[in-house]
Design brief:
seven-stranded antiparallel beta sheet; six-stranded antiparallel beta sheet; 3 helices
Length: 240
């Protein structure tokens, strides 16, 4: 008999639960009802429990932005992940969080902890720039190719949104932002993403920076389980 694989994940069902109200910029707490957020959060917890108990095989990936990513679902251009900040990752915040923009739409439910998204307005300025725009190309083998473009810009702070457990925030494709966890303390989010045709993954970097390549490290089963169990303890403590 085959071992159970844990709960099935339906992207469309989750998207309906967490569908946000329209509006500009990262927006905490927008759209879904408390009941729908609870339902989505419970589903995320059921996946984490299945991983912790060995009923579902998932390996966490160390993301270049400083968190552990659990790839729960990959369905063409769409995906569902759980992000674990401060769970054996290198920071999760850092003194200078990377300003970046996704090629995909992001809808994120905070499972525990505090997450802040800083919006950055990027202004083209070839005369007195502060940053160069880099394009990030991610391969299926976990390799990230970071290549400098001919675009030189100024990054202008453009507000921020604080999100805590039960809040939902949205980042649209092409919106530059930096994600920070409060004091570097652990946090976790359930993330829905859908790649948008014609969009690119980008980041802001040094004016004279060089192209480079990095490979995302895949964690072992026990390391993944340890991080997941720690996240579940924090969720249980918050519910207790």
């Amino acid at each position: 008999m085959d071992a159970p694989h844990g709960p099935d994940i339906d992207y469309d069902a989750l998207r309906r639960l967490l569908a946000p109200d329209p509006g500009p910029g990262p927006s905490p707490g927008a759209g879904p009802s408390p009941a729908d957020r609870t339902t989505a959060g419970d589903l995320a917890v059921s996946v984490l429990r299945a991983v912790a108990e060995g009923r579902r095989s998932l390996s966490a990936v160390r993301h270049p932005l400083g968190f552990l990513c659990l790839p729960v679902l990959r369905d063409g251009a769409r995906g569902v992940c759980v992000h674990l900040f401060g769970a054996g990752s290198e920071g999760g915040e850092g003194d200078a969080p990377l300003v970046h923009a996704h090629s995909w739409s992001l809808v994120s439910l905070v499972l525990f902890g505090h997450v802040t998204n800083h919006s950055v307005r990027v202004v083209d300025d070839p005369v007195a720039p502060t940053h160069r725009v880099y394009e990030v190309r991610s391969g299926p083998d976990g390799t990230d190719e970071v290549r400098g473009t001919a675009r030189f810009v100024r990054g202008v702070p453009d507000g921020f949104g604080h999100s805590t457990a039960g809040d939902v925030y949205v980042v649209r494709p092409g919106e530059f932002h930096a994600t920070v966890v409060a004091g570097g303390r652990p946090a976790a989010t359930l993330v829905l993403g859908e790649t948008q045709p014609g969009s690119k993954d980008m980041s802001l970097g040094l004016l004279s920076g060089e192209d480079h390549r990095s490979v995302r490290e895949i964690c072992g089963r026990e390391e993944t389980a340890v991080a997941v169990r720690a996240a579940l303890r924090r969720i249980d403590e918050a519910d207790g």
